[in-house]
Each structure stands twice: as structure tokens, then as C-alpha cells.
């Protein structure tokens, strides 16, 4: 087995349980009694997902928010989390940020564990939500003819990474440090979207993943894609950390949330993704990690 | 805040949700759709919980097993897990061990995430089980007059840590490398035990924790404690990694599983724990991490 892809493929082959189904890379679904739970798990690593000098309060916020964002893309209402934390400098700040995000989204802390590592710190989080609509939207339901839409503006978190130059508290700064999982938007879209996911690794990469999972081709119109920095549209479309919602939907459906139509789902045509008719360079589509 | 204790106390203060309750340090309980789920989360760190030269197959087994052991102590039937894995040498072995433990306990893999760290590797796991008996046993229910009992033999994993000297495949070797969560034993005990937990950090330390949570005193009789190495009883009683079940129970109850009575619960008498009437040195009770 070589690297992450082989590992994840091997993991996937192990995922079998009568009561549970692995919905896609973002989440699993568990039927319990008359309810449907949605389960997600994401890890953050110092130096990869967060900077070494990041405020631990922002790390805690991001750790929980990235998991809640996966719940949002499933139209799930957050219930609770469990987390692992690397103890170190700024534990009080971590608690403060954790308290902020749990209160903001009314999420319970079910439990966790702490470790004390010598190397780069790492954090992990499992989030549990309750589905508000079944079937739970997945990556794989996009159909030819669907409109492809995205909420918000892409690249804002990228600008926020350099917030020192732009002033703390700006929209870009907050987009990077305190991303907001779009829980209400996800709930509103769940009954209507044929496929949905959050944009965590860059619009182009995530769009190509949705196209692959749905066995279709995505045709995007770059002029329609809302970018935070018009001087660097490519960077905005391939940067991660935005946590907007990408979804495919009947083109005649009335959108229940603010979103832009950025393209159309086509029958498979030999490329997962075309932007203005051109197949993008796979190395420049987003954040592979 | 200073260190792990302060951090955990601060975490605990954040744990509030109408549908969920933090049962104790081992697990939380979530009522869903007429069922009661039990949730646990434990992390392993290279150099702390596992050796750097450990077979990744054994690391995977232990990662899942220590979480299932927490479920066992709640009488919960395992349903599924989510995990984080540090990619590196031996990922194929990790998958092999994971496959073993999932099959052995018929547990689903719901999802996970991978990271690639430069320093010591870390792993985390959330396990989800279904309660087979409510109220779910906790650490806090031991009552004066209860018998204190423990399953199995303590110190076997300690001997297994040096299995190179004792031969691979011995009982001690397996106890260290492939600990067996006592799922069936936990289910049988759940309706009867007034308090229950697994022995993961050393019998004396864990017994003192149960006494503290129950606001009682535990009086143990060292001669009754089953140890793997009679030449080193103190080490056996304070070593971690055994994953036996420690429980308090009506002294007249018929035990449904093989277990030894090792003491009696007393009213609070100024010490959480006495062994042969003596208060043990807190520094020699077990594995604080």
C-alpha cells in the first residue's frame, strides 16, 4: 500500500456493519431506533492544517468547526463531539475557543482524551449529528442537467491567512481563524440538493471529487465563481479552508439560501471537471493532504 | 490552568447537552430514538502508550481494544468506531491489525482521517456502543458494604512488555500486544454491578478513582488480588494495560463471570484506598498520563 490513498481505500474496504453505512468520505450514517445519526471525524496537525504560532483558541474553534461543517453538508443538526488534545502552552486558550464554538453551535462535549507529545501537536474530533432529512445528501447524487451552486465567497480564508497585513477582525481574518459551519444553510438545502459537500480543500478539487463520486462531469464557468480576490481567481478556487457548501440541484428549484450558480452537471465526457471548457491541471486544483 | 487535570476539569465544565450526559471519565451516554448509546474516546501516543518499534498491527488492535474496553465496562455492545491515523512505515500492518480487531468484535468502521506527522505518531479513536442495560454502570455507584471484585490476573501485560524474553504468543505477550476487551463479561455484570470500570492505568490507581467518584473508601486485601508475578505484587497492582473489569457488587450476589473478591467498600474514612489497612503511596499506584 502506498500513502494516504491506498490506506483510505483499505480502510474503506473494512467499513461494513448492518446498522451503519459509510455515506462517502465526509460522513457515515447510523440508524438508531427511529433516528438517523451522522458521524464525522477530522484531525488537525500543527504545521499542516494550523500554524505553530496559531492562537490555541482558534485551533479549538477550527477543530470543531471543520467537523460541524461536514455535518452541515449532510443537513445534520449537531448533537455532540469527542476530541483529542495535545497538551502544551495555551491550554487555557484552547478551552476558551472550545467553549466559544460549543456555545455558538449549541454542541455538547461528550468526552475526550489528552496526550503530551514531543513533536508537532495534533488534534482530532468526532462529531455526531442528527439527520434532519433522509436520505442524507451525499457526494454521489449529482445528475446531468443539475445546476452546480456554491454559497459565499471563495478565497476569503486564503486572504485571512495573511490577516496581519489586513487587520485582525476583518471578514478575511475571521474566515481563516473562525470558520463558520453553515448548519442552517445545510438543513435548508438537504431536502433539495441532489449532492452536497463542504468546500474544505479548494473548490476545483472538491468539485472534481463530487463529479467522480457521482460519475458525471462538472462544467464550471469561471466568471460565475465568486472569488475574494479578483486578481487571483485561480488561487481562490484552489485554496482550502473556506467551508462553503457546494451542491448540485435541479436548475428550476428555488434556492432557499444565498448561493451562486457556477456551472452545470454534464454526462460523463472523459473529464471529471472542465472550467470554461478546459480540463484544469490536477496539481493546481486544491489541497491534497 | 496547569496540566492535564486542570484541562480535564475545564473540559468537564463544558459538557452540557439536554440529550447527553457525561457519565464519568470513561464514557458519555446519549439517548437516541429509544436507544441509549455509549460513547468513548481514547488516544495513543508513540513513546507513551506504545513503543516506537511496536508492530503497527498491534497498535491498531490496541487503539480499538482500549476503546472497546471502556464500552465493556459500561455493558455496551460495540457498534462502530471512527479513528485518526498517523501515516508512515507499516500502514499495511496497521490495516491488518485493524481488520483483525474489527472482525473479532464485529465492529463497523464508520470513518476516519489520516495525518502525516514529523514527530512521534499519534492515534485516536471514538467508539460507539449500544447500552444493553440501563442505567448504564458508572464509576460512581459503589456503596458501603459492596464487595470489590476484579476479573482475570493483574500484571500480565507488564510481563508481556518483555515478551522477547518469554516467547512470542505467550499469554503475557498477547495480553500486552492484543488486549481483549471483556465485552461479554461487561454485559453480564452491567445489571448487577453498582459501579464498574476497566483497569487501564493500574488496579490501585483505578480503584482509588472509583472510590473517589463514589465518595467512599475502598479497603483491599492484597493477598486476595490475583497477580501474574507473585515476586512483584506491587508492580502488578500498579501497572496499566490489563483491561480487566473492576466492579463493586452486592456481596450476596452470585457472580455471573469468573472474578475474585479483593476487598470491601467502606464508608468514607479519610482515605480513598487502603491496602491491608495502609494508605498506599500515591506515586506508586499506577500510570498517570
Tell me what the structure shows.
The structure is a homodimer of 289-residue chains. Chain A has 289 residues and is an alpha+beta fold. Helix content of chain A is 28%, strand content 27%. In chain A, the strands form 2 sheets. In chain A, strands 1-2-3-6-4-5 form a 6-stranded mixed β-sheet, covered by helices on one side. Chain A has a 6-stranded mixed β-sheet with strand order 8-10-7-11-9-12, sandwiched between helices. In chain A, strand 1 (20-22) and strand 2 (28-32) form a beta hairpin. The longest helix of chain A has 17 residues, at 56-72. Chain A is globular, with a radius of gyration of 18 Å. The two termini of chain A are 17 Å apart. The mean pLDDT of chain A is 89. At the A-B interface, helix 1, strand 2, strand 3, strand 4 and helix 3 of A face helix 1, strand 2, strand 3, strand 4 and helix 3 of B.
**Beta-strand segment tally of chain A:** 12
Tell me which oligomeric state these chains represent: homodimer
Distance between the termini of chain A: 17 Å
Low-confidence stretches of chain A: none
Mean pLDDT of chain A: 89
Radius of gyration of chain A (CA) equals 18 Å
Strand arrangement across the biggest beta sheet of chain A: 1-2-3-6-4-5
Derived from helix and strand composition plus strand pairing, the structural class of chain A reads alpha+beta
Classify the helix fraction of chain A into a percent range. 25-40%
Order of helices and strands of chain A: HEEEHEHEEEHHHEHEHEEE
Main interface by residue count: A-B, 67 and 67 residues
Globally, the shape of chain A reads globular
Percentage of β-strand residues of chain A: 25-35%
Amino acid at each position: 500500500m502506498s500513502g494516504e490513498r491506498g490506506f483510505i481505500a483499505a480502510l474503506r474496504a473494512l467499513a461494513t456493519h448492518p446498522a451503519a453505512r459509510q455515506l462517502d468520505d465526509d460522513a457515515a450514517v447510523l440508524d438508531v431506533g427511529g433516528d438517523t445519526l451522522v458521524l464525522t471525524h477530522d484531525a488537525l496537525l500543527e504545521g499542516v492544517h494550523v500554524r505553530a504560532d496559531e492562537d490555541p483558541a482558534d485551533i479549538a474553534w477550527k477543530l470543531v468547526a471543520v467537523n460541524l461543517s461536514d455535518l452541515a453538508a449532510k443537513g445534520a443538526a449537531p448533537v455532540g463531539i469527542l476530541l483529542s488534545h495535545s497538551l502544551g502552552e495555551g491550554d487555557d486558550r484552547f478551552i476558551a475557543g472550545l467553549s466559544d464554538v460549543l456555545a455558538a453551535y449549541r454542541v455538547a462535549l461528550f468526552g475526550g482524551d489528552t496526550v503530551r507529545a514531543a513533536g508537532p501537536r495534533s488534534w482530532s474530533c468526532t462529531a455526531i449529528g442528527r439527520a434532519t432529512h433522509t436520505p442524507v445528501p451525499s457526494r454521489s447524487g449529482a445528475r446531468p442537467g443539475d445546476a452546480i451552486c456554491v454559497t459565499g465567497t471563495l478565497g476569503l480564508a486564503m486572504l485571512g491567512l495573511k490577516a496581519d497585513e489586513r487587520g485582525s477582525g476583518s471578514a478575511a481574518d475571521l474566515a481563516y481563524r473562525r470558520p463558520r459551519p453553515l448548519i442552517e444553510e445545510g438543513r435548508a438545502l438537504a431536502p433539495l440538493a441532489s449532492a452536497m459537500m463542504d468546500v474544505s480543500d479548494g473548490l476545483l478539487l472538491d468539485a472534481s471529487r463530487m463529479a467522480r463520486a457521482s460519475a458525471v462531469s462538472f462544467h464550471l464557468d469561471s466568471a460565475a465563481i465568486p472569488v475574494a480576490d479578483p486578481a487571483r481567481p485561480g488561487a481562490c478556487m484552489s485554496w482550502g479552508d473556506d467551508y462553503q457548501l457546494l451542491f448540485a440541484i435541479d436548475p428550476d428549484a428555488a434556492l432557499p439560501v444565498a448561493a451562486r450558480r457556477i456551472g452545470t452537471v454534464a454526462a460523463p465526457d472523459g473529464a471529471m471537471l472542465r472550467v470554461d471548457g478546459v480540463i484544469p491541471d490536477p496539481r493546481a486544483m486544491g489541497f491534497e493532504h
